[in-house]
Amino acid sequence: MVEFTLVIIPVLLICFAIVQFGLMLHDYVTLTHAADVGARVASVSRDQPNGVTLARNATIASASGLNSGQLNVSVTPQPWLAGSQVTVQATYPYSVNILGFVVTSGNLTAQTSARAE
After folding, report:
1. Considering the entire predicted model, what is its pTM?
2. What is the count of structural domains for the chain?
């Protein structure tokens, strides 16, 4: 019983860490997909007067599961020319909590470039 008690605590901590890492990885994949969608919308909306707004809104809309209030999106350059590269960069904060203790925190960043059509 004593050995079980000594072993179960580190095993549970490792399991909690794996779950937290999985949640952070899910947020990163979602953020990367959202940046891809935003870059695609930006590349085809060069002629629109509100192309930057369209790209930002598409990025935020496709980031389902993330808090849109914490999602920062930038589209550069503004305005863009046909054949030039347009870049969408999205950042989202993360923190790894294990049993209520913040182990690490920072910002996840995803950046995607697309050729403007």
Report:
1. 0.87
2. 1
